Structures are given as structure tokens and as C-alpha cells.
Amino acid sequence: MNEAAIAHLTPNQRAWKRFRKNKPAVISAWFLAALVLLALLWPAFSHPRVAALLPKPLTYSQEAISDAQFQPPSGQHWFGTDVHGRDSLSRVFFGARISLLVGAVGAGVSLIIGVLRGAIAGSAGGRTDNYMMRFVDILYSLPSIVFVIVLFTTFEKTLKQWLNTAFATPMGAKAPLIFLFIGLGAVSWLTMARIVRGQVLSLRTRNFVEASRVLGASHARILWKHILPNVYGIIMVYLTLTVPAIILYESFLSYLGLGIQPPQASWGSLIAEGAHQINPLRIYWWLLVYPGAMLVTTLLALNFLGDGLRDAFDPRGSR
Amino acid sequence: MYFLKRILTMIPLLLIISFMAFALIRVAPGGPFDRERKPASPEIERALRAKYHLDEPLVKQYFRYLGGVLKGDFGPSLKYRNHTVNDIIKQGLPVSLALGGMAFCFAMGVGIPLGFYTAVRRGQWGDYIGSFFALLAFCIPAFVVGPVLIMIFAMKLQWLPVALWHSPLHFILPTVALGLYFSGRIARLMREGMTDTLHAGFITTARAKGLSESAILWKHAFRLAVLPVVSYSGPLLADLLTGSFVVENIFRIPGIGVFMVNSTINRDYTMVVGLVLLYAVLLLVMNLLVDLSYSLLDRRVRYE
Known about the structure:
The complex is a heterodimer. Helix content of chain A is 73%, strand content 0%. Chain A is mostly helical. Chain A is globular and about 75 Å long. Chain A starts with a helix and ends in a 6-residue tail after the last helix. Chain B is mostly helical. Chain B has helices at residues 2-27, 42-51, 58-70, 85-120, 125-139, 142-156, 168-198, 201-208, 213-225, 227-250, 257-266, 269-297. Chain A binds chain B through residues 138, 141-143, 145-146, 149-151, 153-155, 157-158, 244, 248, 251-252, 255-256, 258, 268, 271-272, 274-275, 278, 280, 283, 285, 288-289, 292, 295-296, 299-300, 303-304, 307, 319, and chain B through 13, 16-17, 20-21, 24-25, 27-30, 135-136, 138-141, 143-144, 146-148, 150-151, 155-156, 162, 195, 199, 238, 242, 245-246, 249-250, 260-261, 264-265, 272, 275-276, 279-280, 283-284, 287.
């Protein structure tokens, strides 16, 4: 590709070009797409009509309890079975649904809070900005995980009761999930806010923004037309890097028994189950290794993807 | 002067943090005596509440607590009745600090050389393989690597003890489990810092003067490249203490981390606030030390 042809592309198009050359990142993107698709379709597999078309090991329901306890991986159960004779493969994919959902929604919540706060602080400037930054500084020096645990054990019961009275009864069981969304999003927005603020501050003084202001454009128009399109690459990068952080947080909480409650499962709670089954007599390695490997692979893919996006959208970092 | 100001601003910060922790845990439903053997008569519960001043207005309780803290007394634990919070911290903190310190050394000892190597070998196979392992370490949480290490080295091979905290042999697995994630993180920071530094003008100058490559890398580049790692080492210590909940839980280590989770669940008010405060103080002091060491490593940094 010669220089003249590149010059006709917008910065975002050039970034995509760079991204597509990054093999690990592209492979990770495909892996994640396949994982999300499988996780979405998984519940349909146990439906009788669909099940007839598929190999048997794919069609177990995650709740089906059987007498086949602690079976090692085999042709029947690819990932083995657990203490209640449930199929681990199915449990791992149902866990993937929750882990990925929490990661995505949590990152979404952190995105909204972070971008709003960053944009307001960056465009209002002055005293408002100063106060808001002090607030972020205070939150930074609070141990965030302690904060989450306190918050979680503190308000979970309240929220559950409230949901039970406000809606029909089954909503109460969803309380931990909703809490994970809000709580994890609420502690993960700090970095996003800092980065967006920095970007907005530097963009505000650029010539094309000044020119637009001279031409009489309103605040909203400048923010919407000139500033947001320029920060969107950076936002996407940090969004991709926030997702693994939140998945990790969630599995950490679920491992401690504070997150997802049985019979629902996430990768963290599956790993916890596997870890509790360790004993000197028999080693049920598959209960630990498979969910652990899935978690690690997914985190790895998300990080490769995030690094690839950053290298593509932030040329300074890709020297 | 600058540092004096920094220390002074820590005081309102700690007040805010202690108040937030206190308010949060006290507003929560449930209390420390909920899980007592039932049926405790209302009189007994009333007496208990009166003994620990839980029947007073919240603000009065907060100031009573604050007064104690100023005298160095974090109050009695509401759950472990025969112990004060000071006792529990005195017993657990040395263990947690030892574990955290060893994991810190492990993370630095693995991360800095790995990051240095991958930056120097940039774009070659050594870089790809090294960077992959750094990222892999960064993606394996302690609650995965801990049980896997136990399964391999303690159960299968029987080289190392499964759990507890008695001899140096007991220290190995927990240290690795806790330090691995951070070694990956440090390797990435080090690599980034080193790559940035190697592109700086003064390195080109040094090359032009004809200095040997090792002199350039070690005497000129390293000193500046290690700065991001240094500034991360403050939060790192705090992260190590947080991460130690899990590792202490897995390896049954009698540290302070286990109390953090249990006390919060048990609504052991004094324990929770005491531990949050301890944590915040550690974090703030570490950050201060980091900033101090900054001016030593990079002469261009000056604090007015």
C-alpha cells in the first residue's frame, strides 16, 4: 500500500487496517465470537428436537442430576461429571453465559458512568472538574474489593427483599446477578473516567474544535460531532480491557461464595466447587482444570484483543 | 514541604474513609449477634448491645470509636469475644506481611527480568514467547493456580506440604500462587517502560557516543524504564493484601485476609472498620514512599 492511498483513509479506517494485520488479536476475536455464540445457543441444545441432531455429550442439561458422580472425562461426558452427577461440559457453558453476561453488562455500566463523568469533567472544566477529580482520587484510595464485599454482603438481602415485594417472587433469585452488574460496574469506571477526561481535555484545545467554536457551534454539537468520534477508539480499547477485569472480579467474588448462588453457576463458582473437592485420596482434576482453562483462555483472548485494538487505535503505543 | 503537605492531606482522607466504612457497615441490615445460639432472650441481647454501646446514636458511636482509634485502640471484636481487634491484627498481620513480602519479591524477581528481556528482544521470537507468558501469568487468577499447584506438587508429586504456615517449605506454593499474576503485570509494565525509554533521545546520544550496549541498557535505560514499575509497587502491596484473602483461604494460612471477608459477613463492625483503616493507611503510606523514591530515581522529578 503506498502513502497516497493511505492518506485517503480516515484515522479509524487506518486503525482497522492495522488491527487486521495483528494475528493474535484477530484469532482472539474469532475465538470470542464463537464462544459467545455457543454460550447463547447452549440452552437450546438440550431441547429434544435439537438434541436429536447433535452428538449426545452436547445435550445434557446443566441441572440433570444423575447417579454417575465424579466420572472422569470420557466419550459420554467430555468434561466429566461433578458431585451430583451433573455434566461438567454443560455446567461450564452455562457458567460462560453468566460470566460473559456479567463482564459485558458490568463493562457497559462502567462505560456509561466513566464516559459521562469524564466528558462532563473534561468539557465543564474549572472548579467542577477539580471537585470531581478529588472524588475519583478518594475512591482510588479505598480498597475497591473491600468496598464491593462490604456493599455486597450489606445490601444483597435488602435488594432481594425489595425485588420480591416489588415484582413476582422469582425476581429475588436474580438479585445477586443484578448486584454484580451494578456493583462491579460501579467500581470499574475510575480508569475509564480518567482516560476520557484526559482525551477530552486535550481535544478541546485542538484547532479544529476552536474553529468550530468560532463558527458558532454549540457545546452539545462540539461534544457530539467533534469530540466523541475522536475518543471512541480509546473508549473501545478500554472497554475491551475492562471486560476481563470484571470477569475476574466476578469469579473472585463467586469463588468466595458472595457472587452467583447455586444452582446457578459461573466460572468462579465452578472453580470453587472444583477446589473444594481436592482431597488426598482421589483427585478430581477435571472439575478444576476445565472451568479454570476456559476462564484463562477467555481472559487471554480478551487481553490479546484489547492489546491489538490499542496498538491499532493508539499509534503512539504501537511503536 | 511537599511531603509534609501530603501527610497532612492523609488525615481528612482517612477520616472520610473510616466514616464511609463505618456508615456502610452500620446501615446494613443484620447485626453481629444474629448468629448467636438461639434463643437468646431479649434481655441478653439488650445487655450485649449496651455493653458494646450499640444502643447509642450512630454519630455518638462513631466519635467514641474515633476516640479509641486515636489512642491506638481499635476496640473489641464483636464476634471473637475474647479478642480485641488489636490482638487479631497483631497475630495476623505479620503472617500476611510475610506472605505479601515474599510474593512481592517473587513478582519483581520474575517480572522485571522478563519485561527487560522482551523489550530488548523486541520483535523477535524471544519477545513473542516471553510476552505470551507474561500475558498468560496476568490471566491466571490465584484461585485457579493455587488449587492446581496443590494438586500437582502436594498431592500428585508430594514434594511440598498441602497447606498451613510452619516452615520455609510451606511458603513456596502460596508465594507462587499469590505472586504469579503480579509478575505478569510487572513484566508488561517493564516492557512498556523499557520500549519507551529506548526510543528516547538521550539513548540515541549515548549510542552516538559509542557506549557499549550493556552500558546503555543498564546504566542509562534501566533506571528510567523501571519508573512505571516503581509507581505500581505502591498499589501492588495493597493488591497483594487483597489477593491474599484467596491464597490464605486456599492454603489455610492464619493471616489477616481471612478476617476481612468473614468479619464483613458476620457484621463484626469494629473488625471491618479497623481492617479497612489499616488497609487504607498501608496504601497511602506506600504511595507516599513510591513518590519519594521517584525523585531519587529520576532527578528531573522535583517536588516543590
